[in-house]
Amino acid sequence: MPLYDRIRALPLTVETYALHGLSRTVSSGFERLTTLIELRGGGEAGIGEDVTYEAEAHPHQQRLGPVLALAGSWTIESFSARLDALDLFPGYAPAQAVFRRYRRWAFESAALDLALRQAGQPLHAVVEREPRPVNFTVSSRMGDPPTLDPVSHRLAVYPWLRFKLDATPDWSDELIAALVATGAVDTIDFKGAYRGTVVDNPADPVLYRRIAEAFPDAWLEDPDLESEAARAALAEHHARITWDAPIHSVDDILAAPVLPRTVNLKPSRFGSLQALFEAYDFCAARGIAAYGGGQYELGVGRDQIQLLAALFHADGPNDIAPAGYDDVDPAPGLPGSPLDPRPAASGFRRQPETDRRAADS
């Protein structure tokens, strides 16, 4: 049975909803804003997280309040169809079209959480998959100018950590050699597939070749392969090329310049549960491995992508480390990898750590 068929008919009652703003100054130096979407009905609440990367979009949404006509009796499928008919950014034009998917995912994940809580069922029982402990990596840039510190400081506290690192042309030979010596790099992100963002990183065939040769076992994410020189630099490394930013659907996987052996499936990029679950089915049928990536979630969104990883790609180089690892000098005592999935008794969420300790006592 297709995965989406297992959830599409789940009944859902929405009476009202609320918006809750979150904020945090993160290690890369900007103030991250997100919005929790809380759907309420039948004495239960379901929560999702809007991870739109446009700061003003969040207070604008929160000032408007719950203006969308979402109240009613639905199924997951009919609620999704209702979202198709609504402008989720009323009175606001987001700078990037993909942000509409990000907000859509917040409402869809909240709906799934609420429907499952109303049914008294956890997600893993409905999709008939056993959650497994999740391998995770820590994503980081290397500073300006780049140094080994973002890696070495974290390894000093957590020597088992694995990393996904954003490579830039100013990486010196000495820095590359030091990173290789750590043996801790799983993925190099070239950021070559981004357009019109603060992290755009134009194609650099020289960098591509240096990295591919220095890290023969690392995944090579999002190179820009439009130029002949870039394609030539990675011609012998196609088996390690993966994609993230361009992937919003199965069609995007098929249209990738190199069909990946593994691919980064970020739920918020897909927007809808149907599109995401179709991608899980497609990858399983084609023998394509998957891993997950985060979007600087500040709340329940992080738990939800960790739970999806536990169900669908627990062994991948999942860029979904728990909060705290984004600090260059993380505090001791953070959850280790592989991460305990600890699914909640009902809903699309993980059990809070305090609840788990109480249950184990």
What tags apply to this protein structure?
2 domains; single chain; alpha/beta; Enolase-like, domain 1
Short description:
The protein has helices at 57-64, 76-84, 98-119, 123-127, 149-157, 173-182, 205-214, 228-233, 250-255, 267-270, 273-286, 300-312, 353-360, and strands at 11-14, 16-25, 31-41, 44-50, 72-75, 138-140, 163-166, 185-189, 219-221, 241-242, 262-264, 289-291. The model is unreliable at 355-361 (pLDDT under 50). It has 13 helices and 12 strands.
Topology of this structure?
Elements: E1 11-14, E2 16-25, E3 31-41, E4 44-50, H1 57-64, E5 72-75, H2 76-84, H3 98-119, H4 123-127, E6 138-140, H5 149-157, E7 163-166, H6 173-182, E8 185-189, H7 205-214, E9 219-221, H8 228-233, E10 241-242, H9 250-255, E11 262-264, H10 267-270, H11 273-286, E12 289-291, H12 300-312, H13 353-360
Parallel strand pairs: 6-7, 7-8, 8-9, 9-10, 11-12
Antiparallel strand pairs: 1-5, 2-3, 3-4
Helix pairs in contact: 2-3
Detailed description of the structure:
There is one protein chain. The protein is an alpha/beta fold and 361 residues long. The chain is built from 13 helices and twelve strands. It has two domains: 3-126, Enolase-like, domain 1; 129-360, Alpha-Beta Barrel (TIM Barrel), CATH 3.20.20.120. It has helices at residues 57-64, 76-84, 98-119, 123-127, 149-157, 173-182, 205-214, 228-233, 250-255, 267-270, 273-286, 300-312, 353-360; strands at residues 11-14, 16-25, 31-41, 44-50, 72-75, 138-140, 163-166, 185-189, 219-221, 241-242, 262-264, 289-291. Strand 6 (138-140), helix 5 (149-157) and strand 7 form a beta-alpha-beta unit. The protein starts with 10 loop residues before the first strand and ends with a helix.
